[in-house]
Design a protein that fits this description.
The chain is an alpha/beta fold. It has 14 helices and 14 strands. The strands form three sheets. A seven-stranded mixed β-sheet has the order 3-9-8-7-6-4-5, sandwiched between helices. Strand 1 and strand 2 form a beta hairpin. Helix 3 runs parallel beside helix 9, helix 6 crosses helix 7 and helix 10 runs parallel beside helix 14. The termini are far apart.
Length: about 450
């Protein structure tokens, strides 16, 4: 004790670093489904809790003033790389960082960022990578909100775009990139991003990512190349890993298969470290990070992702085999039953499974499709996809209602297209439901 009876000042104890993750055993690389059970989390840092607690705090105490300065040097860009520690809920948090570590595992990505929704992930990426008078090259169709963001909102700030159909050949992609370069030169900007969605929503058309990468590299032989980003929500991360085909950023609506229970909204981007490092400061500024509770729920969901997606994929194969032979079904947009040889070639090179979301074309039009939808008893009439339950919707009248009619016609979003996302129910029960609903058409 000091003379004034006050205790001596305690020496600050530095935060202990977490244990190194175990990613291999005996030279064997552990699979993502195994790593989901503990990767990125050290229980001894949380009182031995087997699962990560939910860290409901808005701010974090610094070890010292110098440590606080160092963190903000990272956040403001005066030091390279992410902040080595926890700062403030708009920047990072334990649940979000564990989630990002695990999300990156699936695509073998350098790093990941998580967001409050799929669209906030896309918006943050575009704001970080695209500047005034730049040009975006994108495939089509895209999710309607993505098209709206590019064509109606970014265009207000001088951003231009050119697009190509999802199934375009290398020669067609070359021509589109040439158009983009000419547009960028005329506007005084640059070709800033190549943005893909594959399979396309809602037609399931596939983009040849390898051809896009070859076309991009040929058109931009130097170091300054527009990044290639792809929305991988329909097949990822289990049935498609586009980084292996040449994409540099992979975008997810984590609401869908990653969340998988229709009880959360979130988004993610995984990929090249240099590009993630450009996006992170933008997320810090505009505050699009997902909240701790949502991150915790996603950690729970990732543990069963492989099981859920596998069961849903098996169910979809059985249901589509039934639907293909039904006299009131005009056709199927299912990746397990591709008619086009070029699309089959892309599927064989890019995909390891056909997924569980597909389009069914009902003989007739909107009236017949609505009769089918209204008669469903097990499948829920709702937008979204990738949940444990089967969902059905009418894109032309719902999710893509805002898309101009001529563009819907060009992209094959017809009035008789019904989008189905198969869940994990008993497949024979689902077939019985579709059978009775088609009988009402």
């Amino acid at each position: 004790m000091n003379d004034d009876n006050t205790p001596p000042a305690a020496t600050p104890i530095a935060r202990r670093k977490p244990k190194a993750d175990i990613e291999t055993i005996g030279g064997r690389k552990l699979k993502p489904s195994t790593l989901m059970m503990g990767h990125g989390y050290d229980a001894t840092l949380s009182e031995g809790s087997l699962k990560p607690p939910i860290f409901l705090t808005s701010t974090f105490a610094f070890e010292s003033a110098a440590a606080g300065k160092k963190f903000f040097e990272h956040i403001t860009g005066k030091r390279e790389g992410p902040a080595d520690g926890l700062v403030y809920g708009r920047f990072n948090g334990p649940n979000q960082e564990i989630l990002e570590d695990r999300l990156a595992v699936w695509d073998e990505a350098d790093d990941s960022l998580v967001f409050s929704s799929g669209m906030s992930a896309i918006a943050t990426m575009l704001l970080a990578l695209v500047g005034q008078n730049d040009v975006i090259v994108h495939s089509g169709p895209l999710y309607a909100a993505t098209e709206t963001l590019i064509a109606r909102i970014l265009s207000r700030f001088g951003v231009g775009f050119v697009d190509f159909p999802a199934g375009a050949t290398r020669e067609e992609i070359d021509a589109i990139i040439d158009r983009a370069k000419a547009m960028a030169e005329e506007k005084g900007g640059k070709v800033a991003l190549v943005y893909l969605e594959s399979p396309a929503n809602p037609t399931n058309a596939l983009v040849d990512v390898e051809a896009v990468r070859a076309a991009r590299d040929a058109a931009f032989p130097g170091d300054q190349k527009p990044a290639i980003a792809i929305d991988n929500t329909f097949l990822g991360p289990l049935w498609q890993q586009p980084i292996k085909q040449g994409a540099e950023l992979v975008v997810y609506s984590l609401t869908k298969y990653a969340g998988g229970h229709s009880d959360l909204v979130a988004g993610g981007v995984s990929g090249n470290q240099a590009l993630i490092n450009i996006m992170r400061p933008m997320r810090n500024v505009i505050g699009t990070i997902c909240d701790p509770n949502t991150a915790w729920m996603l950690l729970r969901s990732l543990e069963t992702l492989e099981l859920r997606m596998t069961r849903a994929g098996e169910n979809a194969a059985k249901v589509c085999a039934y639907l293909k032979a039904h006299p009131k079904v005009e056709g199927l947009g299912y990746l397990g039953m591709i008619d086009d040889p070029r699309q089959q070639d892309i599927f064989d090179r890019h995909c390891s499974g056909a997924g569980s979301t597909f389009s069914v074309f009902i003989k007739g039009g909107e009236a017949e499709s609505f009769k089918f939808l209204d008669a469903l008893k097990i499948a829920k009439l709702a937008v979204s996809l990738g949940g444990t339950e089967t969902l059905a919707s009418h894109p032309a009248a719902m999710t893509h209602l805002s898309v101009p009619q001529e563009r819907k016609d060009a992209l094959g979003i017809t009035d008789n297209l019904v989008r189905i996302s198969i869940g994990i129910e008993d497949p024979d029960d689902l077939i019985a439901d579709f059978e009775q609903a088609l009988a009402q058409v």
